[in-house]
Amino acid sequence: MNDQYLDVLERARNLHDQVVSWRRYLHQIPELSFNERKTSAYISQEIKSNDVFQVQEGVGGYGVTATLENPGPIIGIRADMDALPIIEETNLSFSSKHRGMMHACGHDAHSAILLGVASLLAEDHAKGQLKGTVQLLFQPAEEAADSEGKTGAVHMLESNQLASFDAILALHMCPWKKIGEIVIHNGPSMANNDSFHLIIQGRGGHAGYPHQTNDPIWIATQVLQVLYSVGGRAVNPLDVGTISIGHVAAGHTNNVIPDAVHIHGTVRSYRPEVRENLKKKLHQAASMANNFGGSYQVNMTEGEPALFNHPKVNEIIKKAASHVTIHDEPFGMGSEDFSHFTAAYPGAMFFLGCGTDDAASLHQSNFDIDEACMVEGVAILYRAVHLFLQENQ
C-alpha cells in the first residue's frame, strides 16, 4: 500500500467518530419512502455546514443534491435515505424512535458514509485540489414505488436538477461479508423486479354442492403448478430468472366456494429477454383457467430494471479498493433502483462488507452493522472520485 492510499485511509479514519455519530442519529429517526422530511433536513443541514457545496433540496421529492463545481469531468455518488416498515428488535442504545419504522437495510450508514465523503471533498475543493465536478445525491424512496410505479431514483432523474454524469457510483451494506471485503461484478448484478396480481375467476357457491360451481381455487391450483415449473423449463440454465408467489387469497369462510382467487407475486431476472419471456409464460400459465371454464386477468406493474454495472467504472472502484479483498460475484436476485441511474449513465455499485459474527440479513428486525466498515466506505468512494477525475481529464 503506497503513501497516497495510507493518507486517504488516515483521513477517513479521522472521521470515524463523526460518521458513527451521523449514522446513529439517522438510525433513530427512520422515515418511510416518500416521507423522509426529518432525514432530508438533517442531511441538508450537515452538508451546508461545509460552506462550499451548492445544495438543492426537494429534488424528486425529499431528495438533496450537493455539488462542487469545477472544470473537467462530472461524477456523481448516490446514497439512499429511506427506512422500512419494521419494528426494530436490536436493543441498541440508539434504536429507532419511530415505532414500526427501522433502518434495516443500511440506508442510515449509506447516508453517513456519503456525508463523510462530502467532508473530505470539501477540504480538497477549498484547496483547489478537485479536478472536476462532483455531485452527491441523497435519494429518497428506494424501498417503495408510488402509485405510478416510480421510485425515488426515477423522480430524481425526471427532476432535471441533476448533473450530466460521466460516471456515477454507489455502495450497499453487505452483512454476509466482513470488514475489509467488498463485492463487485460487471454487467447484470441484481435482478429486475416486476410484480403481478393474477385473478382467477370462477363461479362460487355452496361448499356442499361443488358440482354446481366452477371452483376457482381448484383452477388456481392447476395454474400454480405450471407457474412453479416455469423457471426450470422456460429459462436457459445459463441464465437466471424466477417467478415467485408471495400471497394467495380467496374466500372468507369454510362453507362457501368463492368466485375468485387473487395471486400476487414477482418476476425477476437479469436479462431483458428473460424478463419478457417470463412475463409471456406467466400469461400462458394463467390462460389455463380458460380450459377449465374459468377466466383470468393479469395486472403487471413494471419495477426496477436489472442493475447493470459498467466495467470501466468498476475498474476505478477496484483500484480505489486495492487495499481490501475483492470478491467478484453477482449480488443476488434482490432489486435496487440505482439501476435506473446506471441505465442513464455509466455507473456501478459495490457491496461493502459490514458483517458481524452474528450478522442478521438485510430487512430483518435485528439487522445491524459493524460500524468500523463505514470509514472503509468513505475511503473507497473518496479515492474512486479522485481516480476517475484524474483518468478522465
From TrEMBL:
Residues the entry annotates as binding Mn(2+): C105, H107, E143, H172, H363
Designated name of the protein: Amidohydrolase
Single GO biological process annotation from the record: diaminopimelate biosynthetic process
Cofactor(s) in the UniProt record: Mn(2+)
Cofactor info, note text: The Mn(2+) ion enhances activity.
GO molecular function, one term: N-acetyldiaminopimelate deacetylase activity
Lineage, highest ranks first: Bacteria, Bacillati, Bacillota, Bacilli, Bacillales
Record bears the keyword Metal-binding: yes
Native source species: Halobacillus locisalis
InterPro entries hit by this protein: Amidohydrolase (IPR017439), Bact_exopeptidase_dim_dom (IPR036264), Peptidase_M20 (IPR002933), Peptidase_M20_dimer (IPR011650)
Occurrences of domain Peptidase M20 dimerisation (ranges): 194-287
UniProt keyword Manganese, yes or no: yes
Gene3D superfamilies cross-referenced by the UniProt entry: 3.30.70.360, Zn peptidases
Keyword vocabulary terms for this entry: Hydrolase, Manganese, Metal-binding
